[in-house]
Design a protein that fits this description.
6-stranded parallel beta sheet, globular, 15 strands, 9-stranded mixed beta sheet, alpha/beta, 19 helices
C-alpha cells in the first residue's frame, strides 16, 4: 500500500509512477525490511523526513511492517509512505518474500529515485543495489551499516562461514556507491576493509533535532535528583540489571533523595525482577521506579528535562538514539562504552564512560556523580547539549550525506527558516 505525501492511503502496492507534489524533482528513498513504530523517530525515518525539507527533494520511506505502524501525522504529511505489507518472521522464507516485494517495487520505481538508502550487509541488499543501478544508471545508492562492535568483529574475523565469504564476494559486485557508519570508532575499524574492496566509507551519525521552544538555561536550573534509563527493559542487549545492581552496592546515604527511573517496553516483568533483586537492599528498592514505554514524545522529553543524569548500560549499540535525545535536554551521561557515547561526550571528558559489564566501575561512577556538585554536572551537560546541536543536528547530517553522494543540497530547508522566525532552539 502506497501513501503519498499529504494524501490518503491507496490500494496500490508499489504504484505505477510517482508524480511528485509541487514539482519536486529529486527523490531520496529509504528501504527498511522490518519497520517498528519507534523507527519513525530514529535514523530509519528521520533522514527521509529531513530530506523532504530540502527544496527540490522529497523523502520516501519504503518498508515492510514488523508490527502495525501508524506514522505520526506530521510525518505522513511530509514523507511519502510505501507499505509493502507485513514483514513476517525472521525466517529465510520470509526474507525471500520481503526481498521479492521490494525488488518488484524497484522494477516500477527505481528510475524515479535519485538517492537510495539500503540497510545491512545481506545478499538481498546487494541484489537490490545491483537492480537499482541497472534500472537507474545515474542514481546513487548506499548501505547504512548500522554496525555495532559485534558486527565489526565478525566482519574483520579471519575465519569466515561460507555465507560470509559469499557476502564478501557479492559486496564489491553489487555496484553500491558507498557505505555509512554511525560512530568514529567503527569508521576507523572498518574503513580499510571496505576501501580495499573499492567502497568508500562515510560517517553519518544519528541525529536529533528539536523544533519546539526550549530554554536550556532554564531547564538546567530545574533539574531534579533523578536518573533515567530508557530502552527495552530486561533484554540482554540493554543489560538494565547492571544499573540496579550498582544502586544496590551504594550506601543508603548516597542514594537517599535520588530517584532512578527505568522507562521502556517490558516494564511489568522487569519491575518484578527489580522487586526481587532489591528485597535485601530496601534503600535501593525505595528509589527505583519502572515505567512502561512512553509513546508520546513530549512526555518522554519531559523526563529528560527533569533528569540530572541519563544512564545507559548496554552491552552493544550501533549509535543509540536516546543518548542524543537525553544530552540535548541537558542530562549528564553515565554510560558503558558503546555506540555514540564517546562521540557525544568527547571520549568521556564531558561524562562518565565505563567498560561493558563492569558493575564495580558503574557503581563508582554513580556514587561520584550523585555526590558531585550540581554546577560540575551542569557545565559538562551544557557542553554536551551544544555538541548535539552543533554536530548531531539532522539538517547538518543530511547535508553531509548529500555531499557524500555528490548531490547539491540547495537552500535552507523551510523548517529551519520557520524555527528561526519563531525564535526556537534547535
Amino acid at each position: 500500500m502506497t501513501q503519498k505525501r499529504g494524501a490518503a492511503a491507496e490500494d496500490d502496492p508499489g504504484g505505477d509512477s510517482h508524480v511528485a507534489p509541487g514539482g519536486v524533482s529529486k527523490v531520496f528513498a529509504t528501504y527498511y525490511a522490518r519497520l517498528f513504530p519507534a523507527a519513525f523517530h530514529k535514523g530509519v525515518g528521520r533522514i527521509a523526513y529531513h530530506f523532504s525539507g530540502f527544496p527540490g527533494w522529497e523523502g520516501w520511506l519504503v518498508y515492510s511492517e514488523l508490527e502495525p505502524c501508524r506514522a505520526p501525522s506530521d510525518y505522513s504529511s511530509r514523507v511519502s509512505l510505501h507499505n509493502l505489507g507485513e514483514s513476517g518472521t525472521a525466517s529465510k522464507v520470509a526474507r525471500v518474500a520481503r526481498a521479492g516485494s521490494f525488488l518488484a517495487f524497484l522494477l516500477k520505481q527505481a528510475r524515479g529515485i535519485d538517492l537510495l538508502n539500503l540497510y545491512d550487509l545481506r545478499p538481498e541488499t546487494y541484489l537490490a543495489a545491483f537492480l537499482y543501478r541497472v534500472l537507474n544508471p545515474t542514481g546513487t545508492s548506499f548501505i547504512k551499516l548500522d554496525m555495532d562492535q559485534r558486527a565489526v568483529d565478525m566482519l574483520l574475523a579471519d575465519e569466515k562461514t561460507p555465507q560470509q565469504r559469499i557476502n564478501e564476494w557479492l559486496l564489491p559486485r553489487c555496484r553500491v556507491d558507498f557505505v555509512t557508519v554511525e560512530t568514529r570508532q567503527i569508521e576507523v575499524q572498518v574503513r580499510d576493509w571496505f576501501e580495499l574492496r573499492g567502497i568508500p566509507v562515510h560517517r553519518v551519525p544519528i541525529g536529533f533535532t528539536y523544533s519546539g521552544p526550549f530554554d536550556i538555561e532554564r531547564t538546567m536550573g530545574q533539574k531534579e535528583r533523578l536518573i533515567v534509563s530508557v530502552g527495552r527493559l530486561g533484554t540482554r542487549q540493554k543489560h538494565n540489571e547492571l544499573l540496579v545492581d550498582a544502586i544496590c552496592q551504594l550506601p543508603a546515604e548516597v542514594v537517599t533523595g535520588w530517584q532512578v527511573v527505568f522507562i521502556g517496553p517490558g516494564a511489568s516483568q522487569f519491575a518484578a525482577w527489580v522487586a526481587e533483586r532489591t528485597a535485601q537492599h530496601p534503600h535501593a528498592g525505595a528509589v527505583i521506579e519502572v515505567i512502561d514505554a512512553i509513546r508520546d514524545r513530549e512526555e518522554l522529553y519531559d523526563w529528560y528535562r527533569r533528569a540530572r543524569v541519563f544512564c545507559l548500560t548496554s552491552r552493544w549499540e550501533s549509535f543509540c538514539t536516546v543518548l542524543a535525545e537525553a544530552l540535548y535536554f541537558g542530562c549528564y551521561l553515565i554510560s558503558t562504552r558503546v555506540g555514540a557515547a564517546a562521540d557525544l561526550t568527547a571520549d568521556g571528558a564531558d561524562g562518565r564512560l565505563v567498560e561493558v559489564e563492569d558493575g564495580a566501575a558503574l557503581a563508582q561512577a554513580l556514587g561520584e556523580v550523585m555526590t558531585a556538585s550540581p554546577e560540575t554536572l551542569e557545565a559538562a551537560a551544557l557542553r554536551c547539549h551544544e555538541r548535539v546541536k552543533r554536530e548531531f543536528d539532522w539538517e547538518r547530517i543530511c547535508r553531509e550525506l548529500l555531499a557524500a553522494a555528490g548531490q547539491p543540497s540547495s537552500a535552507r530547508p523551510w523548517h529551519a527558516t520557520a524555527c528561526a522566525l519563531h525564535g526556537s532552539s534547535r
